[in-house]
Amino acid sequence: MSELLDFSGRSVWFNVTLFAAAAAIVWIAGTRMVRLVDRLADRTGMGKGFAGMLLLGGIVSLTEISTVSTAAFTGSPLLALNNLLGSESINLFLLAAVDPLTGREALTSFIAKPAMLFQGTMGIVLLAFTALAMAVGDVLVFGVGLWSSALFLLCLGALWMSARYEHRKVWTVQDQTEKPGDESGDDGGPDRDKHRQESLGPLCLKLTALAGVILLAGLFLSLTGDALAEQTGLGASFVGFLLVGISTSLPELSTITAALRMKRHEMAVGDILGSNVFNLLLVFLTDVLYVGGPVLNQVGRFEIVASLLAIVMTGILLLGLLERRDKTVLGMGYDSAAMLAVFLGGVAILYGFGG
Question: Are residues 243 and 234 in contact, defined by beta-carbon separation less than 8 angstroms?
Fold first, then answer.
């Protein structure tokens, strides 16, 4: 079975074709999944931001499960951790890159709900906790790292607290003005009423089926991306790591692009913030499957700096959500442009560590 999943022995063109086919499947499935999640949120009364965080973020993170499980089980803990920590900043980079799809106004100017700020703040806390754990070192307790176990519980707590916070009326934006397609000021009209009357069972079945498609296609994206990095001579460099990281983040790219085209801005941001929480949750899975001691003890400066890079980029996103400025540069908000610049600078620093 392991030989069938080893694509390094196949030709480069075979892997390129399979990679492209899997990417197309993920893109189509992700686009349809956004529509289903939007309808499910209307049917259940779930907020768009939390629906993006819990459902979209959780489902698109299924790709990382197969990647990190294989890497940890085969004795490559750094590959697993680098994939998870790399996806943290790559996801934010993709969110900034698709900002121009919102039109003449910045993406963050459409969002006026405190739930997004809460989710982003929780993301920073979790990333800081992860960086602290890697800097201090971990100890085994019942065969699993104590810090990774605590991180797992914190991630579950963050999801639980986000669900409760979604329906609390803590504050509102005083200068909020309705914008076309701003879900925070739009009641949804006849479509939302129709969605509320839709049967919940078929919706869940369709969503489960699409999740299975994304999981399977995402697995082939990861395997062929890893093989291509090795076959093209990039596997030993940071460029190879970046290629694999972007390939496993393609599901996020498809879902946030579809969400922005549907003018579901909160769902797009929630998707990325949720995906980042689920990625950190998978550190515990990596620790469980790796038998060489606490997985967080295998890291170095590279992984710590990767966590700090994601913290800085999340902080910039939060500043954009607080400012809510309409002004743009190069078709995107100032915050998105800053995230792109910070990401590129961070990649240069990380390449110096791991190149």
Answer: yes
Angle, CA 95 vertex, CA 286 and CA 212 arms, to 5° = 50
Residue 267 CB partners (closer than 8 Å, separation 6+): 34, 37, 38, 41, 48, 49, 51, 52, 56, 183, 259
Here the tokens at position 314 are: 């999340």
Residue 170, judged by CB atoms within 10 A of its CB (0-12, 13-18, 19+), counts as: exposed
**Residue matched to tokens 């710590």:** 304
Domains defined for the chain, CATH in brackets: 12-354 (1.20.1420.30)
Model confidence over 47-91: pLDDT tens digits? 777 787 777 888 878 777 877 887 777 777 877 888 888 889 999
Q: What is the DSSP letter of 183?
A: T
The yes-or-no verdict on residue 148 having pLDDT over 90 is yes
Q: Which one, of 123, 115, 118, 117, lies nearest residue 166 by Cα?
A: 115
Q: H-helix or E-strand containing 277?
A: helix 265-289
CA distance 286 to 147: 13
Q: Which of 225, 217, 214, 213 is closest to 7 using CA atoms?
A: 225
244 touches 225 (CB < 8 A): yes
CA distances (Å), origin 338, targets 10, 127, 319, 328, 332: 40, 20, 11, 11, 10
Model pTM score: 0.84
Structure confidence by residue, pLDDT tens digits, 303-344:
899 899 999 999 999 999 988 877 888 888 899 999 999 999
